[in-house]
Amino acid sequence: MAPLPRLDVRTVQNPDRPGTGFILIAVPRSPLGPHAVVVNDSLRYPRRHGRMTTYLSESDVAQAHRDRFTGPC
Question: Given pLDDT bands bounded at 50, 70 and 90, which one contains residue 55?
């Protein structure tokens, strides 16, 4: 993935079963987007919509880059 986003990793213990729980990974909105990933030897730009992942079109990627440099600081 490039550029790498910031990750907040937290462990949450189960108070009813000591030594068990889960790991919470939060990825805040990044001012460095869009972020690219490799999918089947191609560079793709994913975007989440609820529980679904969609991929940006070429024009969406161009707009995201323009927004990155013209958006609020």
Answer: very high
Is-cis flag, bond preceding 18, omega within 30?
no
Give the integer Cα–Cα distance in Å for 30 and 58: 20
3-state SS, one letter per residue, for the chain: CECCCCCEEEEEECCCCCCCEEEEEECCCCCCCCCEEEECCEEECEEEECCEEEECCHHHHHHHHHHHHHCCC
What amino acid occupies position 20? Answer: T
Q: Is the pTM of this model over 0.85?
A: no
Q: Which of 41, 73, 45, 43 is nearest to 60 (CA)?
A: 45
